[in-house]
Amino acid sequence: MFCGEHICKLDEKGRFIFPQPMREILEDQGKRLVYLKGPEYRLAAYSHPEWTKILEKSQEGLDEQQSRLFMHHIVSEMTMADLDKGGRLLIPGKMRKHLNLDLDQEVVLIGLYHKIEIWNPSAWRRYLTVNEESFEIAEARFMELL
């Protein structure tokens, strides 16, 4: 299960050191991460086995037209990267461009159980600020769960 918030610096090739707790999970699941474009200057990233489950669900749960749209607009845009021997992952160029990164070339990784979101740091801070009131309203319910 992916969890936590991690700030990672990209090198000149667009690679970052994958955080150790998440790295162990990814290594157990084949070392491959699948990237998809998301809204708000973020990416969704799945381990390859998790992505395979999503593809199987799409085949079972979508009609023919929905399946074609899913393949044309989602699957055709995905890219993959493998964890290298140094524990680094590449964010391919078209995905880095989607993130609209600042000059410091940092990304924020957010572990969300079965997937990871990769954010432009400015967009992540903006998202937290915009949703602060909603969080405060729901916080009591969250505390009940804990």
Please sum up the structure shown.
The chain contains 6 helices and 8 strands. By secondary structure, the protein is an alpha+beta fold. The two termini are 17 Å apart.
The top level CATH class name: Alpha Beta
Please give the CATH architecture. Answer: 3-Layer(aba) Sandwich
* Uncertain regions spanning at least 5 consecutive residues: none
N-to-C terminal Cα separation, in Å?
Answer: 17 Å
Biggest sheet overview: 6 strands, antiparallel
State which percent range the strand residues make up: 25-35%
Helix content: 40-55%
How many domain modules?
A: 1
What is the chain-wise order of helices and strands? EEHEEHHEEHEEHH
Helix count? 6
CATH third-level topology:
Chemotaxis protein chec
Class from secondary-structure proportions: alpha+beta
Largest sheet strand order:
1-7-8-4-3-5
Mean pLDDT over all positions: 94
The named CATH superfamily: Transcriptional regulator MraZ domain
The best one-word shape is: globular
The counted number of beta strands is 8
User: Cα-atom Rg, whole angstroms?
Assistant: 16 Å
What does this structure look like?
By secondary structure, this protein is of the alpha+beta class. It has one domain: Transcriptional regulator MraZ domain (Chemotaxis protein chec). The chain is built from six helices and eight strands; from the N terminus they run ββαββααββαββαα. The strands form two sheets. It has a six-stranded antiparallel beta sheet. Strands 2-6 form a two-stranded antiparallel sheet. Strand 3 and strand 4 (42-47) form a beta hairpin. The model has no long low-confidence stretch (mean pLDDT 94).
